[in-house]
Every structure is written in structure tokens, then in C-alpha cells.
Write a structure and sequence with these properties.
Helix content is about 40%, strand content about 20%. It has about 300 residues and is of the alpha+beta class. The protein has two domains: about 5-180, Jelly Rolls, CATH 2.60.120; about 190-295, Arc Repressor Mutant, subunit A. A hairpin with a 2-residue loop joins strand 4 (about 55-60) and strand 5. Helix 2 (about 120-130) packs antiparallel against helix 5 and helix 10 (about 260-265) crosses helix 11 (about 270-280).
Length: about 300
């Protein structure tokens, strides 16, 4: 038996309902010059970049990619901080997805940034979205703040169909470069059970380390050690990541007051939320909200 066939399937322990809560949203669909021509940028979204003119060099977590307009590739980037340097004449198609809370703890695996060769199906899915009348009529400023726009119901449903197809094509191409959005493979049933519990827990609900460990029949310290061995982080750290993702999702909606977001996450004072967010994201909530495209 080969090593590939012996590798456990990460979806074997998943029920068919595990993916029902996922709700991919299109946050940017822009054609034109890059919003950050050069520099280091924090990001919480999954992105597709296709070069139309010029060239680019990008780095993320030790991985480096280069692409030009002549290359039939998509640059696929997982959430997190990246460095990029576009040429002065660069023009791109920039697509940003917010996969949403899948309620199963799914996460990005493999290279954090990669160039994937496109094919007819993927190119057609991108063209279908970018040339849709509802997108084509938008100004560039509206295109980079796509997630904040309002739509007629029929228009929104059409765009959502195109978005889902493009996201599906992106995941298909990502798999060719070993980049995956998947449920973690968890061997220990105590970690698997507690992980599923936290992944599906409403973000507004608090949890107790001791109660979580008691459900598994062990101490909180033992559960922390099991989590680190299986997932590389503790339950508290996992919950902290969930809260940050939720905060970013809410901040991208301009009509939600920052004070309301802070209160939603259990912060009594706005300054506490601002300090917490700045420590984890490198900028204040207000700065994040004002940044073009918020990514």
C-alpha cells in the first residue's frame, strides 16, 4: 500500500451536514490597478489574483511566487499577512472570498500562496462573473467594496450562483498545487469531539476550559496538551481565532457600529476591543474598516 493510500481521509469523520453552514461571500470583484502596489498587507480573505498587465512578486509565510500577464495562472492566497510588489504598469483581476463559518473547523492547508494553472472551466467561471451586467456597471470603488453593496434579490441570487461556481473552481485548481480547505484530520476522539463543539458554538457564547475538558473526561491541562499535539494550538487559541474572524467579518459591514461589534464579542469597553484587535491584526478596528477593500 502506498503512503498516499494509507493517508487518512480528513472527511471520513465528517457527517454530510458538516458543510451546510458554509456561506461563501464575494467581498471584492475588481478589474484594474492593484490597491496595494507594494508593501506588506494583513488579510483575512481567500483571494484570486490574475495578471492582465505587468508582473508581480508575492511572498507569504516563506513561500514566494512570481507571475506575469503572459502566464495562464491564478495566484491563490490563503488568509494572513502577505508581501507583494507589482510592477508600475500592473493591472489585475482581484477576487476576494469570505468562506464564512463552516461550523466544522475547516481550515486552509498546504502552501499559503501558490500559482495554479487555469483551464477552460476556471477561465469561463471568472469571465462569467466579471462580465455579468450587475458587476460590469459598477465603478472601481464599488468593485473593491463589493461586499458592502445592496442588490435586488434576483440579481443577488444570480451573483451568488456565479460566486459559488468560481469558488468551486478555485478550490479545484488549488488542489492541483496541494492547497486545500478541509476539516482537520483528528485522531484522538476527545480532541475531535471538543473541536466540533467549539467549531459549531455561537461566537457570542462563552465556554469554560474546565467544562470542555470534563466533557472529555480529562483535565483542562491534559486537553490543552492533546490539542497542541493534534492541531498545534489550544482550545482558547482556536476560539480566539474564531473571534478575530468574526470581528473582521462584522467590520467589513459599514452599517454595524464598532461599539456594537465589541459588545457582541463580550468587551465591556471599546478600548479593550481595540487593543485586542490591534494585537492580533496589527491595526485598529477603525483603520481596518477604512482600508480600501478592507483586505
Amino acid at each position: 500500500m502506498s503512503m498516499a493510500s494509507a493517508r487518512p481521509d480528513p472527511h471520513e469523520t465528517s457527517s454530510p451536514s458538516d458543510w451546510k453552514a458554509i456561506h461563501p461571500l464575494l467581498e471584492r470583484c475588481a478589474i484594474g490597478p492593484p490597491q496595494g502596489r507594494r508593501g506588506t498587507f494583513p488579510g483575512v480573505l481567500y483571494t484570486i489574483c490574475q495578471m492582465l498587465r505587468g508582473s508581480v512578486v508575492m511572498e507569504k509565510d516563506g513561500c514566494r511566487v512570481e507571475a506575469t500577464a503572459k502566464d495562464p495562472v491564478w495566484i491563490l492566497t490563503t488568509p494572513g499577512t502577505r508581501t507583494q510588489h507589482f510592477s508600475e504598469d500592473a493591472e489585475i483581476i482581484s477576487i476576494h472570498f469570505a468562506p464564512g463559518n463552516s461550523a466544522n473547523g475547516a481550515e486552509w492547508k498546504g502552501p499559503p500562496i501558490a500559482c495554479a494553472q487555469t483551464d477552460e472551466a476556471s477561465r469561463q467561471s471568472l469571465e462569467n462573473l466579471c462580465t455579468h451586467p450587475a458587476v460590469a456597471r459598477l465603478s472601481f470603488e464599488e468593485q473593491i467594496n463589493f461586499g458592502r453593496l445592496e442588490w435586488q434579490l434576483d440579481e443577488y441570487l444570480q451573483l451568488q450562483i456565479l460566486t459559488l461556481n468560481l469558488f468551486r473552481q478555485a478550490l479545484r485548481l488549488a488542489a492541483t498545487v496541494d492547497q486545500r480547505f478541509e476539516i482537520p484530520t483528528i485522531e484522538d476522539p476527545r480532541v475531535r469531539s471538543s473541536h466540533r463543539y467549539l467549531a459549531g458554538l455561537d461566537i457570542r457564547q462563552s465556554f469554560s476550559r474546565n467544562d470542555l475538558a470534563l466533557r472529555a473526561g480529562i483535565t483542562a491541562g491534559q486537553l490543552d496538551r492533546l490539542w497542541r499535539r493534534e492541531l498545534g494550538l489550544t482550545p482558547n487559541q482556536f476560539r480566539d481565532q474564531q473571534r478575530l474572524t468574526h470581528a473582521c467579518e462584522q467590520l467589513r459591514q459599514a452599517d454595524i457600529p464598532i461599539k456594537a461589534i465589541a459588545a457582541d464579542l463580550g468587551f465591556v469597553h471599546l478600548s479593550q476591543f481595540s487593543n485586542w484587535f490591534h494585537t492580533r491584526h496589527g491595526e485598529s478596528p477603525r483603520s481596518y474598516r477604512k482600508r480600501p477593500g478592507t483586505n
